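To the wet lab folks,

You asked to see what we're planning to order before we commit. Fair enough. Below is the target structure as C-alpha coordinates, and below that is the sequence we designed to fit it. If anything looks off to you, flag it before the synthesis order goes out.
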Protein backbone atom coordinates (compact mmCIF):
# COMPACT_ATOMS: atom_id res chain seq x y z
CA UNK A 1 0.00 0.00 0.00
CA UNK A 2 0.91 3.65 0.02
CA UNK A 3 3.72 5.05 2.06
CA UNK A 4 3.17 6.93 5.28
CA UNK A 5 2.49 10.67 5.12
CA UNK A 6 1.30 13.29 7.61
CA UNK A 7 -2.27 12.90 8.84
CA UNK A 8 -4.55 15.46 7.20
CA UNK A 9 -7.99 14.12 8.08
CA UNK A 10 -10.01 15.22 11.07
CA UNK A 11 -8.93 14.26 14.58
CA UNK A 12 -10.50 14.67 17.99
CA UNK A 13 -8.01 16.95 19.71
CA UNK A 14 -9.78 16.69 23.06
CA UNK A 15 -9.43 12.90 23.07
CA UNK A 16 -5.80 13.09 21.98
CA UNK A 17 -5.06 15.63 24.70
CA UNK A 18 -6.74 13.44 27.31
CA UNK A 19 -4.74 10.45 26.09
CA UNK A 20 -1.54 12.38 26.76
CA UNK A 21 -2.53 13.55 30.24
CA UNK A 22 -4.09 10.39 31.69
CA UNK A 23 -0.92 8.23 31.56
CA UNK A 24 0.92 10.96 33.51
CA UNK A 25 -1.86 10.97 36.10
CA UNK A 26 -1.62 7.18 36.45
CA UNK A 27 2.12 7.39 37.01
CA UNK A 28 1.59 10.02 39.72
CA UNK A 29 -1.05 7.86 41.42
CA UNK A 30 1.30 4.87 41.48
CA UNK A 31 4.10 7.08 42.80
CA UNK A 32 1.84 8.32 45.60
CA UNK A 33 0.77 4.76 46.49
CA UNK A 34 4.44 3.72 46.61
CA UNK A 35 5.18 6.65 48.91
CA UNK A 36 2.35 5.63 51.27
CA UNK A 37 3.54 2.02 51.39
CA UNK A 38 7.15 2.93 52.06
CA UNK A 39 6.79 6.10 54.17
CA UNK A 40 3.62 6.46 56.29
CA UNK A 41 3.01 2.70 56.52
CA UNK A 42 6.39 0.93 56.72
CA UNK A 43 8.75 3.55 58.15
CA UNK A 44 6.42 5.71 60.24
CA UNK A 45 4.16 2.95 61.55
CA UNK A 46 5.78 -0.49 61.32
CA UNK A 47 9.36 0.57 62.07
CA UNK A 48 8.49 3.49 64.40
CA UNK A 49 5.07 2.68 65.78
CA UNK A 50 3.13 4.93 68.19
CA UNK A 51 2.92 4.21 71.88
CA UNK A 52 1.36 0.93 72.96
CA UNK A 53 2.10 -0.63 69.48
CA UNK A 54 5.02 -2.98 69.10
CA UNK A 55 7.45 -2.59 66.13
CA UNK A 56 7.05 -5.06 63.26
CA UNK A 57 10.34 -4.95 61.41
CA UNK A 58 9.73 -8.06 59.27
CA UNK A 59 6.39 -6.75 58.03
CA UNK A 60 7.90 -3.33 57.41
CA UNK A 61 10.48 -4.94 55.12
CA UNK A 62 8.29 -7.55 53.43
CA UNK A 63 5.35 -5.31 52.50
CA UNK A 64 7.38 -2.78 50.41
CA UNK A 65 9.44 -5.56 48.79
CA UNK A 66 6.32 -7.42 47.68
CA UNK A 67 4.75 -4.15 46.52
CA UNK A 68 7.66 -3.33 44.22
CA UNK A 69 7.90 -6.96 43.06
CA UNK A 70 4.29 -6.70 41.86
CA UNK A 71 4.82 -3.18 40.53
CA UNK A 72 7.77 -4.11 38.30
CA UNK A 73 5.85 -6.26 35.75
CA UNK A 74 3.06 -3.66 35.71
CA UNK A 75 5.56 -0.93 34.84
CA UNK A 76 7.31 -3.02 32.17
CA UNK A 77 4.03 -4.02 30.53
CA UNK A 78 2.68 -0.47 30.64
CA UNK A 79 5.83 0.94 29.04
CA UNK A 80 5.67 -1.74 26.34
CA UNK A 81 2.01 -0.91 25.75
CA UNK A 82 2.65 2.83 25.57
CA UNK A 83 5.47 2.27 23.10
CA UNK A 84 3.24 0.26 20.75
CA UNK A 85 0.21 2.55 21.09
CA UNK A 86 2.10 5.80 20.53
CA UNK A 87 4.19 4.50 17.64
CA UNK A 88 2.01 2.11 15.65
CA UNK A 89 -0.83 0.01 17.14
CA UNK A 90 -1.53 -1.39 13.66
CA UNK A 91 -2.32 1.63 11.50
CA UNK A 92 -3.20 1.12 7.84
CA UNK A 93 -0.92 3.33 5.68
CA UNK A 94 -2.47 6.52 4.35
CA UNK A 95 -3.14 6.44 0.63
CA UNK A 96 -4.44 8.66 -2.15
CA UNK A 97 -7.53 8.88 -4.31
CA UNK A 98 -5.63 7.21 -7.17
CA UNK A 99 -5.69 3.91 -5.25
CA UNK A 100 -9.47 3.81 -5.62
CA UNK A 101 -9.21 2.85 -9.28
CA UNK A 102 -8.76 -0.83 -8.42
CA UNK A 103 -8.20 -2.85 -5.23
CA UNK A 104 -4.67 -4.26 -4.88
CA UNK A 105 -4.08 -7.95 -5.48
CA UNK A 106 -3.40 -8.63 -1.81
CA UNK A 107 -7.19 -8.67 -1.39
CA UNK A 108 -8.43 -10.72 -4.32
CA UNK A 109 -5.53 -13.15 -4.37
CA UNK A 110 -6.96 -14.50 -1.13
CA UNK A 111 -9.93 -16.84 -1.21
CA UNK A 112 -12.09 -14.85 1.22
CA UNK A 113 -12.17 -11.17 2.13
CA UNK A 114 -14.63 -8.67 3.58
CA UNK A 115 -16.23 -6.53 0.89
CA UNK A 116 -19.00 -4.03 0.26
CA UNK A 117 -22.28 -5.03 -1.47
CA UNK A 118 -20.61 -4.62 -4.89
CA UNK A 119 -17.84 -7.09 -4.10
CA UNK A 120 -15.01 -4.58 -3.66
CA UNK A 121 -12.98 -4.23 -0.46
CA UNK A 122 -14.22 -1.48 1.84
CA UNK A 123 -12.82 1.95 1.00
CA UNK A 124 -11.97 4.51 3.71
CA UNK A 125 -12.56 8.01 2.38
CA UNK A 126 -10.69 9.55 5.32
CA UNK A 127 -7.45 7.57 4.96
CA UNK A 128 -7.95 7.20 1.18
CA UNK A 129 -7.06 3.53 1.21
CA UNK A 130 -8.69 0.10 1.14
CA UNK A 131 -9.50 -1.38 4.54
CA UNK A 132 -8.26 -4.93 5.25
CA UNK A 133 -10.53 -7.35 7.08
CA UNK A 134 -11.53 -6.36 10.63
CA UNK A 135 -10.14 -2.84 10.16
CA UNK A 136 -11.98 0.18 11.57
CA UNK A 137 -11.44 3.91 11.27
CA UNK A 138 -11.02 5.77 14.55
CA UNK A 139 -12.19 9.37 14.56
CA UNK A 140 -10.07 10.27 17.58
CA UNK A 141 -6.72 9.67 15.87
CA UNK A 142 -8.04 9.90 12.31
CA UNK A 143 -6.55 6.57 11.23
CA UNK A 144 -7.69 3.08 10.25
CA UNK A 145 -6.34 0.40 12.59
CA UNK A 146 -6.06 -3.32 12.00
CA UNK A 147 -8.39 -5.30 14.28
CA UNK A 148 -9.16 -2.16 16.24
CA UNK A 149 -10.62 -2.78 19.69
CA UNK A 150 -11.22 0.67 21.16
CA UNK A 151 -9.67 4.05 21.90
CA UNK A 152 -8.36 4.07 25.47
CA UNK A 153 -7.03 7.30 27.04
CA UNK A 154 -5.68 5.25 29.99
CA UNK A 155 -3.02 3.79 27.71
CA UNK A 156 -2.54 6.80 25.47
CA UNK A 157 -4.36 5.89 22.28
CA UNK A 158 -5.81 3.09 20.15
CA UNK A 159 -5.84 -0.53 21.28
CA UNK A 160 -5.50 -2.58 18.11
CA UNK A 161 -4.04 -5.77 16.75
CA UNK A 162 -0.47 -5.14 17.90
CA UNK A 163 -1.39 -3.86 21.37
CA UNK A 164 -4.44 -5.83 22.53
CA UNK A 165 -2.33 -8.59 24.08
CA UNK A 166 -0.22 -6.12 26.10
CA UNK A 167 -3.39 -4.27 27.10
CA UNK A 168 -4.94 -7.36 28.66
CA UNK A 169 -1.65 -8.33 30.33
CA UNK A 170 -1.43 -4.86 31.85
CA UNK A 171 -5.00 -5.06 33.14
CA UNK A 172 -4.42 -8.42 34.83
CA UNK A 173 -1.16 -7.33 36.45
CA UNK A 174 -2.64 -3.99 37.56
CA UNK A 175 -5.63 -5.81 39.06
CA UNK A 176 -3.30 -8.04 41.12
CA UNK A 177 -1.33 -4.98 42.28
CA UNK A 178 -4.51 -3.14 43.30
CA UNK A 179 -5.80 -6.23 45.09
CA UNK A 180 -2.61 -6.46 47.13
CA UNK A 181 -2.69 -2.77 48.04
CA UNK A 182 -6.38 -2.93 48.96
CA UNK A 183 -5.83 -5.87 51.32
CA UNK A 184 -2.78 -4.31 52.99
CA UNK A 185 -4.28 -0.87 53.46
CA UNK A 186 -7.67 -2.23 54.59
CA UNK A 187 -5.96 -4.26 57.31
CA UNK A 188 -3.97 -1.36 58.73
CA UNK A 189 -6.80 1.16 58.35
CA UNK A 190 -8.94 -1.18 60.40
CA UNK A 191 -6.14 -1.44 62.96
CA UNK A 192 -5.27 2.26 63.14
CA UNK A 193 -7.97 4.64 61.85
CA UNK A 194 -6.31 8.02 62.28
CA UNK A 195 -4.19 8.28 59.11
CA UNK A 196 -5.63 10.27 56.19
CA UNK A 197 -2.97 9.13 53.72
CA UNK A 198 -3.86 5.51 54.36
CA UNK A 199 -7.51 6.29 53.68
CA UNK A 200 -6.65 7.97 50.38
CA UNK A 201 -4.44 5.06 49.30
CA UNK A 202 -7.17 2.57 50.23
CA UNK A 203 -9.79 4.52 48.28
CA UNK A 204 -7.60 4.69 45.16
CA UNK A 205 -6.67 1.01 45.41
CA UNK A 206 -10.30 -0.10 45.81
CA UNK A 207 -11.48 2.11 42.92
CA UNK A 208 -8.88 0.79 40.47
CA UNK A 209 -9.39 -2.77 41.72
CA UNK A 210 -13.04 -2.76 40.72
CA UNK A 211 -12.27 -0.84 37.52
CA UNK A 212 -9.57 -3.26 36.36
CA UNK A 213 -11.64 -6.26 37.46
CA UNK A 214 -14.47 -5.21 35.17
CA UNK A 215 -12.07 -4.50 32.32
CA UNK A 216 -10.35 -7.87 32.71
CA UNK A 217 -13.66 -9.75 32.77
CA UNK A 218 -14.90 -7.94 29.64
CA UNK A 219 -11.60 -8.28 27.75
CA UNK A 220 -11.28 -12.01 28.52
CA UNK A 221 -14.90 -12.53 27.50
CA UNK A 222 -14.24 -10.92 24.12
CA UNK A 223 -10.96 -12.82 23.68
CA UNK A 224 -12.76 -16.12 24.30
CA UNK A 225 -15.41 -15.14 21.74
CA UNK A 226 -12.80 -14.17 19.14
CA UNK A 227 -14.21 -10.65 18.85
CA UNK A 228 -13.10 -7.08 19.42
CA UNK A 229 -15.08 -4.48 21.37
CA UNK A 230 -16.30 -2.88 18.14
CA UNK A 231 -17.31 -6.23 16.62
CA UNK A 232 -19.18 -7.16 19.80
CA UNK A 233 -21.02 -3.84 19.80
CA UNK A 234 -22.07 -4.52 16.17
CA UNK A 235 -22.61 -8.26 16.63
CA UNK A 236 -26.15 -8.14 15.24
CA UNK A 237 -24.99 -6.50 12.00
CA UNK A 238 -24.34 -8.36 8.75
CA UNK A 239 -21.13 -8.68 6.73
CA UNK A 240 -20.52 -8.98 3.03
CA UNK A 241 -17.91 -11.56 2.13
CA UNK A 242 -16.31 -12.24 -1.23
CA UNK A 243 -15.75 -16.02 -1.43
CA UNK A 244 -13.82 -17.56 -4.30
CA UNK A 245 -15.98 -19.80 -6.48
CA UNK A 246 -14.75 -23.37 -7.08
CA UNK A 247 -12.77 -24.08 -10.28
CA UNK A 248 -15.72 -25.45 -12.26
CA UNK A 249 -17.51 -22.11 -11.89
CA UNK A 250 -14.52 -19.96 -12.79
CA UNK A 251 -14.48 -18.24 -16.22
CA UNK A 252 -13.58 -20.53 -19.12
CA UNK A 253 -10.51 -19.76 -21.18
CA UNK A 254 -12.56 -20.21 -24.37
CA UNK A 255 -15.97 -18.67 -23.97
CA UNK A 256 -15.93 -16.85 -20.65
CA UNK A 257 -18.42 -19.32 -19.19
CA UNK A 258 -17.76 -21.70 -16.35
CA UNK A 259 -16.07 -24.94 -17.36
CA UNK A 260 -17.74 -28.30 -16.92
CA UNK A 261 -17.31 -29.78 -13.45
CA UNK A 262 -13.99 -31.50 -13.00
CA UNK A 263 -13.89 -35.15 -11.96
CA UNK A 264 -13.37 -35.66 -8.23
CA UNK A 265 -12.07 -38.62 -6.28
CA UNK A 266 -14.73 -41.27 -5.66
CA UNK A 267 -15.06 -43.49 -2.60
CA UNK A 268 -12.84 -46.54 -2.69
CA UNK A 269 -15.77 -48.86 -3.37
CA UNK A 270 -16.63 -47.11 -6.65
CA UNK A 271 -13.20 -46.24 -8.10
CA UNK A 272 -12.28 -47.44 -11.51
CA UNK A 273 -8.93 -49.15 -12.13
CA UNK A 274 -7.54 -46.04 -13.77
CA UNK A 275 -8.13 -44.10 -10.54
CA UNK A 276 -6.66 -46.64 -8.17
CA UNK A 277 -4.08 -44.15 -6.97
CA UNK A 278 -6.99 -42.11 -5.51
CA UNK A 279 -5.95 -38.81 -7.06
CA UNK A 280 -8.35 -36.09 -8.03
CA UNK A 281 -8.48 -34.59 -11.50
CA UNK A 282 -9.91 -31.36 -10.08
CA UNK A 283 -7.71 -28.31 -10.78
CA UNK A 284 -5.93 -27.22 -7.63
CA UNK A 285 -6.41 -23.46 -7.82
CA UNK A 286 -7.45 -22.71 -4.27
CA UNK A 287 -7.22 -23.97 -0.71
CA UNK A 288 -10.99 -23.65 -0.60
CA UNK A 289 -11.17 -26.25 -3.36
CA UNK A 290 -8.56 -28.87 -2.50
CA UNK A 291 -7.83 -30.63 -0.29
CA UNK A 292 -9.83 -28.90 2.45
CA UNK A 293 -13.01 -28.39 0.43
CA UNK A 294 -13.03 -30.81 -2.49
CA UNK A 295 -16.78 -31.41 -2.28
CA UNK A 296 -18.06 -28.41 -4.23
CA UNK A 297 -21.12 -29.06 -6.38
CA UNK A 298 -20.58 -32.82 -6.67
CA UNK A 299 -22.47 -34.29 -9.63
CA UNK A 300 -24.02 -30.91 -10.43
CA UNK A 301 -23.51 -28.90 -13.59
CA UNK A 302 -22.40 -25.27 -13.32
CA UNK A 303 -25.67 -23.79 -14.52
CA UNK A 304 -27.61 -25.78 -11.95
CA UNK A 305 -25.21 -24.70 -9.21
CA UNK A 306 -25.48 -21.04 -10.15
CA UNK A 307 -29.27 -21.20 -10.25
CA UNK A 308 -29.32 -22.79 -6.81
CA UNK A 309 -26.93 -20.17 -5.43
CA UNK A 310 -28.98 -17.32 -6.88
CA UNK A 311 -32.02 -18.54 -4.90
CA UNK A 312 -30.13 -18.34 -1.62
CA UNK A 313 -30.96 -15.40 0.66
CA UNK A 314 -27.25 -14.67 1.17
CA UNK A 315 -26.47 -14.43 -2.57
CA UNK A 316 -25.66 -10.93 -3.81
CA UNK A 317 -23.99 -11.70 -7.15
CA UNK A 318 -20.45 -12.26 -8.39
CA UNK A 319 -17.39 -10.18 -9.19
CA UNK A 320 -14.33 -11.09 -11.25
CA UNK A 321 -10.81 -9.81 -10.56
CA UNK A 322 -8.68 -8.17 -11.75
CA UNK A 323 -11.10 -5.35 -12.56
CA UNK A 324 -10.97 -3.40 -15.81
CA UNK A 325 -10.03 0.21 -15.13
CA UNK A 326 -11.55 1.49 -18.39
CA UNK A 327 -14.08 0.16 -20.85
CA UNK A 328 -11.41 0.03 -23.58
CA UNK A 329 -8.99 -1.97 -21.49
CA UNK A 330 -9.11 -5.70 -22.30
CA UNK A 331 -9.88 -8.09 -19.48
CA UNK A 332 -7.09 -10.29 -18.20
CA UNK A 333 -6.86 -13.84 -19.60
CA UNK A 334 -9.27 -16.29 -18.03
CA UNK A 335 -6.39 -18.23 -16.50
CA UNK A 336 -5.53 -15.14 -14.45
CA UNK A 337 -9.08 -14.27 -13.44
CA UNK A 338 -10.66 -15.08 -10.10
CA UNK A 339 -14.43 -14.95 -9.73
CA UNK A 340 -15.94 -14.46 -6.29
CA UNK A 341 -19.42 -14.98 -4.93
CA UNK A 342 -20.68 -11.95 -2.98
CA UNK A 343 -22.44 -13.28 0.12
CA UNK A 344 -24.18 -11.46 2.96
CA UNK A 345 -23.88 -13.20 6.32
CA UNK A 346 -26.86 -13.52 8.64
CA UNK A 347 -26.94 -11.24 11.71
CA UNK A 348 -24.77 -12.43 14.55
CA UNK A 349 -22.45 -14.64 12.50
CA UNK A 350 -18.78 -14.33 13.45
CA UNK A 351 -16.62 -15.93 10.74
CA UNK A 352 -13.49 -15.50 12.89
CA UNK A 353 -14.77 -17.49 15.86
CA UNK A 354 -12.50 -20.54 15.84
CA UNK A 355 -14.98 -22.73 17.67
CA UNK A 356 -13.57 -22.87 21.20
CA UNK A 357 -12.53 -20.30 23.79
CA UNK A 358 -9.03 -21.78 23.95
CA UNK A 359 -8.43 -21.46 20.19
CA UNK A 360 -9.70 -17.90 20.16
CA UNK A 361 -7.52 -17.00 23.14
CA UNK A 362 -4.36 -18.59 21.74
CA UNK A 363 -4.87 -16.90 18.37
CA UNK A 364 -4.03 -13.66 20.21
CA UNK A 365 -1.78 -14.77 23.07
CA UNK A 366 0.00 -17.73 21.52
CA UNK A 367 0.26 -21.31 22.75
CA UNK A 368 3.08 -21.01 25.29
CA UNK A 369 2.66 -20.01 28.91
CA UNK A 370 5.50 -17.48 28.92
CA UNK A 371 3.85 -15.69 25.99
CA UNK A 372 0.74 -15.30 28.14
CA UNK A 373 2.64 -13.89 31.10
CA UNK A 374 5.38 -11.67 29.71
CA UNK A 375 5.05 -8.68 27.33
CA UNK A 376 7.81 -9.68 24.95
CA UNK A 377 5.87 -10.80 21.90
CA UNK A 378 3.03 -9.01 20.14
CA UNK A 379 -0.17 -10.73 19.03
CA UNK A 380 0.35 -13.22 16.22
CA UNK A 381 -0.37 -11.86 12.73
CA UNK A 382 0.91 -14.84 10.74
CA UNK A 383 -2.53 -15.43 9.22
CA UNK A 384 -2.19 -12.21 7.23
CA UNK A 385 0.24 -13.99 4.93
CA UNK A 386 -2.26 -16.77 4.28
CA UNK A 387 -3.77 -17.43 0.85
CA UNK A 388 -7.15 -18.17 2.43
CA UNK A 389 -8.00 -15.04 4.40
CA UNK A 390 -6.41 -12.26 6.42
CA UNK A 391 -7.52 -13.92 9.67
CA UNK A 392 -8.27 -17.58 10.46
CA UNK A 393 -11.84 -18.64 9.71
CA UNK A 394 -13.84 -20.89 11.99
CA UNK A 395 -16.71 -23.39 11.89
CA UNK A 396 -19.40 -20.69 11.75
CA UNK A 397 -18.00 -19.65 8.38
CA UNK A 398 -17.91 -23.21 7.10
CA UNK A 399 -21.48 -23.81 8.28
CA UNK A 400 -22.46 -20.63 6.45
CA UNK A 401 -20.93 -21.95 3.21
CA UNK A 402 -22.81 -25.19 3.75
CA UNK A 403 -26.10 -23.31 4.18
CA UNK A 404 -25.43 -21.24 1.07
CA UNK A 405 -24.58 -24.30 -1.02
CA UNK A 406 -20.90 -23.63 -1.70
CA UNK A 407 -19.93 -26.67 0.36
CA UNK A 408 -21.89 -29.89 0.49
CA UNK A 409 -21.40 -33.57 1.20
CA UNK A 410 -22.29 -36.13 -1.45
CA UNK A 411 -24.43 -38.25 0.85
CA UNK A 412 -25.54 -40.60 -1.93
CA UNK A 413 -21.97 -41.40 -2.86
CA UNK A 414 -21.08 -42.12 0.74
CA UNK A 415 -24.09 -44.41 1.26
CA UNK A 416 -23.01 -48.03 1.22
CA UNK A 417 -19.36 -47.12 0.82
CA UNK A 418 -16.61 -48.83 2.74
CA UNK A 419 -15.04 -45.63 4.11
CA UNK A 420 -14.23 -46.28 7.75
CA UNK A 421 -15.19 -43.96 10.59
CA UNK A 422 -11.51 -43.27 11.25
CA UNK A 423 -11.08 -42.06 7.67
CA UNK A 424 -14.02 -39.70 8.09
CA UNK A 425 -12.57 -38.33 11.30
CA UNK A 426 -9.22 -37.81 9.62
CA UNK A 427 -10.83 -35.95 6.72
CA UNK A 428 -12.83 -33.79 9.17
CA UNK A 429 -9.71 -32.81 11.08
CA UNK A 430 -8.02 -31.87 7.82
CA UNK A 431 -10.87 -29.53 6.90
CA UNK A 432 -10.82 -27.90 10.34
CA UNK A 433 -7.07 -27.36 10.29
CA UNK A 434 -7.18 -25.85 6.83
CA UNK A 435 -9.64 -23.18 7.87
CA UNK A 436 -8.85 -22.55 11.49
CA UNK A 437 -5.16 -21.92 10.99
CA UNK A 438 -5.83 -19.68 8.00
CA UNK A 439 -3.24 -21.55 5.95
CA UNK A 440 -2.77 -24.58 3.75
CA UNK A 441 -3.37 -27.84 5.62
CA UNK A 442 -0.33 -29.86 6.59
CA UNK A 443 1.02 -31.86 3.67
CA UNK A 444 -0.86 -29.88 1.06
CA UNK A 445 2.16 -29.20 -1.14
CA UNK A 446 3.53 -32.71 -0.63
CA UNK A 447 0.25 -34.40 -1.53
CA UNK A 448 -0.19 -32.19 -4.57
CA UNK A 449 3.30 -33.01 -5.82
CA UNK A 450 2.79 -36.74 -5.23
CA UNK A 451 -0.44 -36.69 -7.22
CA UNK A 452 1.26 -34.83 -10.02
CA UNK A 453 4.09 -37.36 -10.15
CA UNK A 454 1.68 -40.29 -10.15
CA UNK A 455 -0.36 -38.73 -12.91
CA UNK A 456 2.75 -38.09 -15.00
CA UNK A 457 4.00 -41.66 -14.48
CA UNK A 458 0.63 -43.08 -15.51
CA UNK A 459 0.61 -40.92 -18.62
CA UNK A 460 4.06 -42.17 -19.60
CA UNK A 461 3.01 -45.80 -19.06
CA UNK A 462 -0.04 -45.34 -21.25
CA UNK A 463 2.08 -43.74 -23.98
CA UNK A 464 4.55 -46.62 -23.83
CA UNK A 465 1.74 -49.19 -24.09
CA UNK A 466 0.26 -47.36 -27.06
CA UNK A 467 3.63 -47.37 -28.81
CA UNK A 468 3.95 -51.14 -28.32
CA UNK A 469 0.51 -51.75 -29.81
CA UNK A 470 1.33 -49.87 -33.00
CA UNK A 471 2.15 -52.24 -36.02
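Sequence we intend to order:
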Amino acid sequence: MADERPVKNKQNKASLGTAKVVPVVLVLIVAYASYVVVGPLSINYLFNPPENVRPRIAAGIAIPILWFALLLPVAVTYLRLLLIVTRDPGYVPLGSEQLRRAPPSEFWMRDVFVCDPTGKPIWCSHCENWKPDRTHHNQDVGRCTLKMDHFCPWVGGVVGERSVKFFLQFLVQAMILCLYLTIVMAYFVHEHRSNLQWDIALGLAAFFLFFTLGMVANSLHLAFLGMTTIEHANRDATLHLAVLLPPELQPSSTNGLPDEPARVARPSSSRSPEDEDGESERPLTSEIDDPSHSRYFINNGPSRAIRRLAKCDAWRGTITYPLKNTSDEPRAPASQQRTFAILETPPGLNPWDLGTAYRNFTSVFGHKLHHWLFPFRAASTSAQTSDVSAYPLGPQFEDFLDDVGLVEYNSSALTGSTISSSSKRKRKRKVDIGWQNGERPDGYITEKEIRRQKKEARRLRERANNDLELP
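Structural context that might help your review: DSSP finds 13 helices and ten strands in the chain. Residues 240-366+378-445 form one domain.

Thanks,
Computational group
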